[in-house]
Design brief:
Layout lengths: L1 H12 L1 H29 L10 E10 L2 E6 L6 H8 L3 E8 L5 E5 L2 E5 L2 E4 L3 H4 L4 E4 L10 E5 H8 L8 E5 L4 E10 L12 E4 L5 H4 L7 E7 L5 H11 L12 E8 L19 H26 L17 E4 L19 H15 L1 H4 L2 E3 L3 E3 L14 E4 L2 E4 L16 E2 L6
Parallel strand pairs: 6-11, 8-10
Antiparallel strand pairs: 1-2, 1-12, 1-13, 3-12, 4-5, 4-9, 7-10, 8-11, 9-10, 14-16, 14-19, 15-17, 17-18
Helix pairs in contact: 2-8, 8-9
Length: 423
C-alpha cells in the first residue's frame, strides 16, 4: 500500500507527465489491438471448414529445372484420374474457374453475374456451407440445378421462396436454364471461395467433363488420415506421362498440394481470382505488435516506477544511500552522507532495465555522459554491477546503475550529492 501511495503522490506532482504517459500507453495498446485483430483475421481464412486434410491441387510445369507455368488450376481430368490411380485420396471436388460474366434473368429482373461456378455434389461434403433451404442431401446431382446464396435470392426473388424457381443464364453464344434447389448463407469474407451461384457440374457436356487439354478447374482433395501430400505429388509425377497432351510432351508435369488454410497467404498464381494476403506482412505486423506492447510497457514502468524518483524506505541499517557521482550538474559539498530514499537493489535494477528496454535504440542515440552510482557497504558477498549512462528525454533523466562497494568504486573519491528529485 505504501508503494502505491507513493506512486499516486508522484503522479499528482507530475500531472502533465502522467497524462502523457497514459496517452502514449493507450495509443500503443490500441494500435497493437487493431493490428492483432487484422493478423487474426488474415490467419482465420478457411478455418471454419473441417479442412485439416483438405488440399487444393495446383499445376506446376517445368522445362528442365525452370518453372514455366505456375497455375492454381488443373485440367478437368486430374481429379478422377488421381482418385482412381493414387491411393490415399478419400474424396475430391472440382470447381470451374469462370473468367466472364453471364446475363442472369428472372422475370423482369436482370443482372450481370460473375460469381458463379459449376461444381459437384461433393462440394457440400468438403466445405462447410450448410443448406438453409431445400433438401440437405442430393444437391447438384441433376443437370441444370443450382444452389444460390441468400443475397442472390433477395436480388431475384425479393423475399419470396426461391425453391423451384428457374433462372436463365445467357452469354453471346449460349442460353441455359437452372432450377433453384437450395439456398446457402453468403460465403464469409474470410473464405477464398466467393460464389453466389453453384451450378451442377453434370450440366457440362459429357465430352468436356474430364478433358486434359484445358486447365480450367480448381481441384480439391481430402486425403485419408495419415496420408502425406508429398506422397500424392510424387505419385502423380509417376503417372503424368500417359495423360500428357501433345502440347505438354516437352514439359515436366507436376502438381503441388496446398493446404486449404494456407491458400490465402500463399503468393498469387495464374488463374487465381480471390484477393490474396501476405504471409510476410502478417509476420512483420506480428513483430510490430510485440514492439508496440514493449514500448507501452516501458511507459507503464515510468508510472509505476515513480517511487524510485525520490521516495521509498531504506533497506536496513547497513544501507548508506545511493550516491550520484560527478558528471551532470556541478559538485555539491563533499561529505554529504544524507540517505537518499532508495528501494531494494533488485527492484531498482529491475526498474532501470525495464525503462531501458522501453526506450530501445532511440535512448542510446542520446547519451550525455557516463555517471556512476554506488551503494556503500552493501550487505551481500558478491558484487552486482550494471554499468550505464544518463540520458535526457525532455527534462527528465533516465539512468542505469552500478552497484558495487563504494570503497572500490572509481568515483568513491569524487564529490557527490544525494538525489532527491529529477532535474
Amino acid at each position: 500500500m505504501e508503494y502505491w501511495s507513493q506512486v499516486i503522490k508522484s503522479q499528482r506532482a507530475r500531472k502533465s507527465l502522467s497524462a502523457l504517459n497514459v496517452f502514449g500507453l493507450s495509443v500503443c495498446v490500441g494500435a497493437a489491438l487493431l493490428i492483432m485483430l487484422y493478423v487474426r483475421f488474415e490467419l482465420s481464412f478457411d478455418s471454419f471448414h473441417d479442412g485439416d486434410r483438405i488440399y487444393r491441387v495446383e499445376s506446376r510445369l517445368y522445362e528442365g529445372a525452370t518453372l514455366t507455368d505456375n497455375w492454381a488450376t488443373t485440367s478437368f481430368g486430374h481429379a478422377p484420374a488421381m482418385y482412381r490411380e493414387i491411393p490415399g485420396i478419400e474424396q475430391y471436388v472440382r470447381v470451374t474457374a469462370q473468367d466472364r460474366g453471364q446475363e442472369v434473368t428472372f422475370g423482369d429482373r436482370q443482372f450481370i453475374e460473375e460469381q458463379y461456378c459449376y461444381t459437384e455434389p461433393a462440394f457440400f461434403d468438403l466445405f462447410n456451407f450448410p443448406i438453409l433451404k431445400g433438401e440437405k442431401g442430393g444437391q447438384l446431382v441433376r443437370p441444370n440445378t443450382m444452389v444460390i446464396t441468400e443475397s442472390a435470392a433477395r436480388r431475384y426473388f425479393a423475399g419470396g421462396d426461391p425453391i423451384g424457381k428457374v433462372l436463365t443464364f445467357r452469354t453471346s453464344s449460349s442460353e441455359q436454364h437452372f432450377e433453384v434447389t437450395g439456398v446457402i448463407a453468403d460465403m464469409p469474407y474470410n473464405s477464398h471461395l466467393h460464389y453466389d451461384f453453384l451450378l451442377s457440374y453434370s450440366t457440362i457436356p459429357e465430352a468436356r467433363r474430364d478433358i486434359w487439354y484445358i486447365h480450367g478447374v480448381y481441384t480439391y482433395v481430402r486425403l485419408e488420415p495419415g496420408k502425406k501430400p508429398g506422397d500424392i505429388e510424387a505419385a502423380f509425377h509417376s503417372i503424368s506421362e500417359k495423360y500428357k497432351t501433345a502440347a505438354l510432351k516437352h514439359k515436366d508435369w507436376r502438381v503441388e498440394l496446398v493446404r486449404l488454410r494456407d491458400i490465402h497467404l500463399t503468393p498469387r498464381k495464374s488463374y487465381e481470382k480471390e484477393a490474396k494476403g501476405s504471409r510476410m506482412a502478417v509476420r512483420i505486423l506480428s513483430v510490430m505488435v510485440v514492439a508496440l506492447l514493449l514500448i507501452g510497457w516501458g511507459d507503464a514502468l515510468d508510472l509505476t516506477g515513480a517511487p524510485y524518483q525520490g521516495y521509498s524506505c531504506p533497506l536496513s541499517g547497513t544501507w548508506q544511500g545511493v550516491w550520484y557521482s560527478q558528471g551532470v550538474r556541478g559538485f555539491p559539498p563533499a561529505g554529504d552522507p544524507a540517505r537518499i530514499a532508495g528501494s531494494r537493489v533488485v527492484e531498482l535494477v529491475g526498474f532501470d532495465l525495464g525503462s531501458r528496454m522501453g526506450r530501445g535504440t532511440v535512448a542510446f542515440c542520446l547519451p550525455l555522459g557516463r555517471t556512476g552510482f554506488c551503494c556503500r557497504r552493501v550487505p551481500f558477498a558478491g558484487i552486482l554491477e550494471y554499468g550505464g549512462s544518463v540520458f535526457y528525454r525532455g527534462n527528465f533523466v533516465y539512468r542505469t546503475v552500478s552497484f558495487i562497494p563504494a570503497d572500490t568504486h572509481p568515483s568513491s573519491g569524487y564529490h557527490a550529492r544525494k538525489i532527491t528529485a529529477w532535474p
